[in-house]
Amino acid sequence: MNFKIKKSFFIVSVICFVAFSSSAQTVIDDDMLDNIEINAKPLWSENIPAFASNNVPDKYKDESAVVFGYKRNVTIDKRSRAGFFSKGERSLLFFENVHFKVKVNDKSSVQTFTEVYFRYRDKEDGFSAKLIKPDGTITTISLADAVTVETTADIPEFYKSFFDKESGGQGRYFKVAIPDLEPSDILEYVAITKSKMDVARSGYIEFSPQYEVCNKAYPVLFNQIGIETDEKSFFKSMALNGAPEFKKENTSDNEFYRYVFTDTDRGTEKDVNFVNTFLTNPLTKFQVIYANKANTKGALIGEKGEIKTGFTKEELAKKAWEDYDQVGDYAYNSYGYTVQNLVNELWAGLKKLGAKDWTEKEYIEKAYYRVRNINVNRDSYLGDKMFAYIFGSLLFQRDIKSDLIISISNTTGKLKDVLFDQEIRYATRVNNKLYFSATDYSNPGEPVETLLGSEAYIIAKPVKGVQQITPFTFPDATALDNNTDYVFTSSLNSDMSTLTVSRTSTFKGISKARNISDALKYTTYMLDDYKYYGGESPTEKMKGREEEEYYKSINALKDNFKESKPIFVKNQLQGEFSNIVKFKNFAIVNDGRSLKKPELIFTEDFELSGMVRKAGKKYLVNVIGLVGSQLQIKKEERVRKYDINVGHAKSYFWTINFKIPDGYTAEGIKELATEVTNETGTYASTAEEKNGVISIRIKKLYKKANVPKDKWQDMLAFIDAAYNNSFKYILLKPKN
Amino acid sequence: MKAPIYIGTKKLFAIALLFCLAVNEAAAQVNDDDATNAYSLSKKYKDDDIMCTSSYHLFTFDKGKNALGDKVVEIVENSEFEFLSLKKFSYLTYPEFYNKFIEINNFKKAYKYGTKYVTYEKGGIDRSVTDDGIFFDDSRVRYFPVRFNQQGAMARITVKKTYLDGKYLTRLFFHESYPVKEQIYEFKVPEWLTVDFTKLNFNGQNIEVIEKKKGGYTNYIFVMKDVPAYKSEYRRIGRAYTDPHIVVQIRSFESKGETLKGFDKVDDVYAWNNKLYLMAANDKTKLQPIVTKLTQGKANDQEKIKAIYYWVQDNIRYIAYEDGYSGYIPSTAQDVLSKKYGDCKGMANLLTEMLKLAGYDAHFTWIGTKSLPYAQSLPALCVNNHAICSLNFGGKTYFLDGTENYVPFGENAFRIQGKEVMIANGDKFEIKKVPETGAADNMIATKADFILTETGLKGKAKVTLTGNQRTDFHQSYQTLPSTSKKEYLNDYLEFGNDNMVAANVKTSDLNNRDLVVTIEGDVDLSNTVNNISGSKYVGVDFFPKSLDRFIPDEKRVEGYDFDDVLKFDDEITLSVAPDKKFIDKPDDLELKAEGYEFKGTYTLVGNKMTLKKSLSIKNNVIAKKELPAWKKFVESIKEFNKYFLSITNK
C-alpha cells in the first residue's frame, strides 16, 4: 500500500478489499452491462473542444498514433455528498472520470489499443467506448463480450483508476476486444469510477506523489488533470522544465477547491544518452494530502484551498526535523517493536562489546558497521532518514555530537524543487566527516552517487521556535575519485584463435558502489559481517544440534554459491565482450567493505574467442578490444538538444599486457596511440613493446557530471576516440 | 511444465539464519535412511535440487455425459508423488492444470516427519494460466510451493482429477522438470471399454510395459525408471519428437448394450471435429456485401481469391477465445467479420465461407503445426492444434492460413509445411499434405560492392528476401510504428554491424506481398580498415553472429530446431585503387552435410576481390547425434570468417 500514514496521529484503518473470486475468467453479466453504460452517459455530454475534432495536425500525420485528448478528473470528498456513504462521514470518497480519444494510424497502434479495460466494482462505475471511422460513422463498442481480468497487474497503467493505483487494490476489471478497429480509426472512451476509503480513524493521509511527464509515447494534443478536494484536503504542485502548472479554478462551492493542469500539443521525445528526465523533460509533480486535524500546520502541505508550489528553507528544515524526530516511534517490525527499541538494543549490544571504552573514532566506525549489519540481514535497506536516526542516536548515546543534514538527490533537482517528503534526503556529519546511509557494502564516510554536489542544509532541533539552518553543499567527486582500473595479462593460445586472459579489476568511489553488488554476488561476505563492529559469531551462543544445523546451512549456501558464481561471471563476461567466454577462475582480493582496504579488487581468469583474425600466415589480434564495448554515439544523436548529464565524473584506466607468441613479431603497435583531451573529458592511449610483451595503457575520463549542450562536440571527440580505437588490431607476423 | 523456482542468494542466507533461530520441525525429523539416500542421489543428480522418488498415476474409467449431452467415458486419475530434497535448501512449485474438461477433486501436500507423512495443505493456490497470446480461456492451475530446508527431507503430493470427457486426456509424458526415480502410469481398463495406448518414442528407452488381468479389468502398466529431468534449452527440438510418451485413445465403449464410438479410426476424429465445426451457425448473407466488394473488378479467379485471402490476413486481428467446447467450435463467419477479430478457427471459418460464397471450392481444415509430430492416421485429439482453409483451385489444393499475415497465395508458413491436414467435406474428409519448401526457396541474398577508402569501405548493398524470409520481413515491418520503419530498413543493410551506416535506402513495392522484397542503398563502413606498416587489413565477411547461439556447449542434452529452412547467399566485392593490390586470399571452404551446407570462395579479378558465400539450412532440425558434426561445421565457418584481406601498394 502506498499510503503514508503519520504515526503521530492515528493508525489508519486497513483497507480491505474483498478478494476477487478466483474462479475462471468470467464474462460480464447483464446487470453490469445495464449499469455501466448508463453511468457513463453523462460524460459524453461534457462540452470539451479538444474532443470535438477528428483531424490530426499535419506535423503528426506520420506518427503511429495521436492522442486528441486525455482528461482525468479526480474528486476527493470527505463531506460524503453521496447518500449512503454520508452516514457519520466515515469515508473519503473518490470520484474519478476519464475521457480519452486517440487516432490509431497504423497496425502497431491498432495492436496497442486492440482491447480496452474498465473497472466495474461499484454500482456507480461506468464505462463507454466509441469507434469513429474515417467517414465519420460512430459505433458504440459493445461490452457484452467483456471478460474479467484476473490480476490488475496486467492492466495498462492508463486504464487503472487513480484510487486503485494508490491502494494497490484488486478492483474488479474487465477487458473487451474492440470490434472492427482498423488503422485510421479513432477510439474514444469515457470512464467513471467511485471508490471509498474508511478514514474514521485516520487523521492524515498522504497520497503518493505523482510525476506527470508531459511527453508520452504518442503526441498528445490535450492533456488535462483536474483535482477537486473538499476543505479537508491539501494540494501541492510544482511544474518543472517548462511544464504547465496546476491552476486553481473557481467552484460553485466555497468549501470545495479545484486545481487543473492543462498541457496542449505535446510531441514525443526520443530516448537519448545522458539525459535525466527529471532534470530535462517537462514534468509537473503534484500530491493530495488529506488531513482532518488542525495541527497538521507546519507539515509540507501548504494552506487549505491554496496550491502550494514550493517550500522555504525554514519550512523544509522544520518539516525534515519533525519527520526525523518521529522516527524513533516508527514501528520497526509488526510486533510493536519500535525503531527506538532497536536503537536501545543496539546500544546495549555495543556496550557489551565494550563500546564505552572505545575511542570516539573507533566507536563511530563500529556504530556505522553495526547499522550496516542490520541492512546486510534485511531484504530491503533502511531509508536514509531511518539510517540517520539510528546512527545519530547511537552517537548520542556516547555523547558524540553530530549534525543532521538534509538535501535532495542530484537526479531530482535543487532544494527549491523539493515538493514531497520523499524527496528529502538525510545524512549525518560528525567532526566534519559525512556519513550516508549504509548499503551491504559501504564503509563509513563513503559518498553516495545521488548526493554528489547536492545542495543541503545543516539543520538543528528548533529551540523556542527558532531553528538553526546552515546552507551546505555536499562535496562533488573528481573523475579520479571514481576510478575503475583494469590490468590485463593476455596471450594467444596455441590454437592461435582464443586469448587467455587474466584481469585484475580495482574500483574506487562511485565506481566501486556501482560494481560491488555484482562482484560480491554469490560470495560469503555476509557471513562474517559481524566482525566489522567486533560482534559475536552467530554460533557463539549455539549449542550442539543448533550449531551443527547452522554449519550445514552455511555449507549449503557455500555449495550454492560455488555453483552459481562461475555461471554468473561467465555470463557477465560474455555480455561485456559480446563473445564466447570460457570461465576459469574468479577471486576476490579486497572486498572493499573495510576502511583498511576500501578498494574493491578482484581477479578473473578466462579464455576469450572472437578477438583474432587471420591474413595469410599472419594474425591480427584485437588486443585493445579487451577494453570491452565502448559507447557509440550514433548519427541521430550527434546534434544535441539538452544539456548533458553523465551522472558523475569518472575515470577508467586499462593496462593491457599481451605476450607476443613465440616465432612472431608484432606490428601496428604505434597505431594504437592516440589522445584527445578537452575540458569535458580525455581519451588517451599509449602502446609499447618490451621483452616480447605489448603494453597498452589507456585512460578515459568523464571530467564533469554535467556538461552544457554546447560542449557536446568536445564530448563526442573523446567518446568517438575511445569507440574507434577499440576496433584496432595488432599484426602478428611469423619471423620466418 | 513443473518447473522449480529458485530463490535469491540474499534471501537464501536469510533463510539459513532463520532456520538456525527456529529449527523447522519437519526438517528436524529427517530420518537417517532418507538422509543417506538423498546424499547418495545428490552425487548422481548434481544439477538437480529435488528428485521425485516415486511417481504413480492410476487411471480408472467410468461412464458419463459431457457438456453437450453425449455419452462419454470419464477418466479419474489418482496420483501420488514423493519428492526428496537432494540439497539442504530446495524449492519447487508443483502444479496441476485444469480447465472445463478437467476437474481437480482432491489436491494435498504432506511433509514427512520421521517416517510418517502429515498433511500440511489442501487445495493449492489457484491461478489462471492464460497465455499471453490468448485473450480469454479456461486454463487454470492449482499449485503447491514445496520448500525444503534439509537434505533428505521429503514431501508427498496426492491428486485426484477427473477428465469429464475422456477424449481430452490425450498425451502422457514420462519426463518432468525434476528427475524421477520411477514414473508409473497404470490404467485399470474395464471390460466395457476398448482403449489403445500408442507408444511413441519408446525405442531405446528403458520402459517396461506390463499387462495384468484381474476381476474383469485389464491393467496396463507403463514403468520408466531413472528418468532424468527435462531441461529447457535454447531452440530445443519439441519434446513430442524426442521424449517417450503415451497417446491415450478411447476407441469404443459399451453402454446399456450399445457400443458407442470413441476414437477408433481417424473417421471418428473427423466426425467429432466436424460436429463442433458445424455448430458454428454461419449466415452467409451477411458476408455477401464484402465478398462482392472485394471481388468486383478483379481480372481473374486468382485475383479474386487473393483479394479475399489477403483481406482476411490484413483486416482480421488474431484474438483467441478458448473456453471449454467453445475453444473447439469456431466463431460464426459473420461474427468474425463484424468484429474484425477472431482466432484460427474463426478466421478459417470466415475465409472458407467467403471463398465459397465467391464460388470457390473451399473447405474448413484441421492441422497440427510442426510442434506436433503426429500423422492424421492417429485417431486422437492431440494431432491437430490449428485450423486453416483448403482451396481446390486450378487442379491444385492450396492451404490458406488467415492467421499468417502477409503469406502470399500459394505459399505456406513454415510451421505448417509438410504437415498432414484433415479437410472437411460434408460427411467425408480428405487427408492431404501441405507442400514443403527447400532452403533455396527461402533466401536472404546479400550483394554488396565496396570500394576501399583510406579509413573505411564505401559502396552499395542490396538485400533480397524470398519465401518465408520475405513473409517474416513483412510480418515485422508492417506492424512497426510508422516512425520506426525507416530505421528498420536501414538495419537490414547494416548487417548488424554498428559501424555500418546505410543511406538512400530504396525498396521494392512493400505493399505487394507477392513480390520478392529488395532493400538497397548506399553503405558506409567505418572502423574496419587497419592501416599497419603501410598495408591495409580489412574484413568483408559479415559473419552472422546469431550462429554463435547454435554452438552447443558440453551440457547440451538435445538437438536444435531452427524452426525454418533457409539459405543465405552473399556476394561481397571489394575494389581497390589501381596502385594497390591484394597480397593473398584465403582458401575456399566447402562443407556438406545432409541437412546443411556451406560454400565460401574468394576470387580475385584485377583489382576486385569477390567473396561468394552460401549457407543452406536444408533441414530445420539438428538431431542430438548430429551435434558434434554441427559444432565442427559452425566452427569451420567461423574460422573461414576470420579472414582479413591484406592490401598493399603495388
Structural account:
The complex is a heterodimer of chains A (736) and B (650). With 736 residues, chain A is an alpha+beta fold. Chain A is built from eleven helices and 36 strands. In chain A, the strands form seven sheets. An eight-stranded mixed sheet of chain A has the order 6-5-9-3-2-12-15-14. In chain A, strands 25-26-24-23-30-34-33-32 form an eight-stranded mixed sheet. In chain A, helix 6 (339-352) crosses helix 8 (384-397) and helix 7 packs antiparallel against helix 8 (384-397). Chain A is globular, with a radius of gyration of 31 Å. Chain B has 650 residues and is α+β, with helices and mostly antiparallel strands. Helix content of chain B is 19%, strand content 42%. Chain B is built from twelve helices and 38 strands. Chain B has an eight-stranded mixed sheet. Chain B is globular, with a radius of gyration of 30 Å. The N and C termini of chain B lie far apart (66 Å). Residues 1-28 of chain B have low confidence and may be disordered. Classes of the chains: A alpha+beta (736), B alpha+beta (650). Chains A and B meet through helix 2, helix 10 and strand 27 of A and helix 1, strand 6, strand 7 and strand 29 of B.
Give descriptors for this structure.
heterodimer, A: 736 residues, alpha+beta, eight-stranded mixed sheet, 20% helix, B: 650 residues, 12 helices, 38 strands, disordered N terminus
Assembly of the depicted chains:
heterodimer
**Structural class computed from helices and strand pairing of chain A:** alpha+beta
- Give the overall shape of chain A: globular
Radius of gyration of chain B, in angstroms, nearest whole number: 30 Å
Number of strands of chain A: 36
The strand line-up of the biggest sheet of chain B is: 5-4-9-2-1-11-14-13
Shape of chain B: globular
pLDDT < 50 runs, ≥5 residues of chain A = 1-24, 80-87
| Overall pLDDT level of chain A | 90
Content-based structural category of chain B: alpha+beta
Which segments of chain B are poorly predicted (pLDDT under 50) over 5 or more consecutive residues? 1-28
Strand fraction of chain B equals: 35-45%
Largest interface: A-B, 66 and 64 residues
**What is the number of beta strands of chain B?**
38
Count, helices of chain B: 12
Largest sheet geometry of chain B: 8 strands, mixed
Major sheet of chain A, described briefly? 8 strands, mixed
**Cα Rg of chain A:** 31 Å
Helix content of chain B: 10-25%
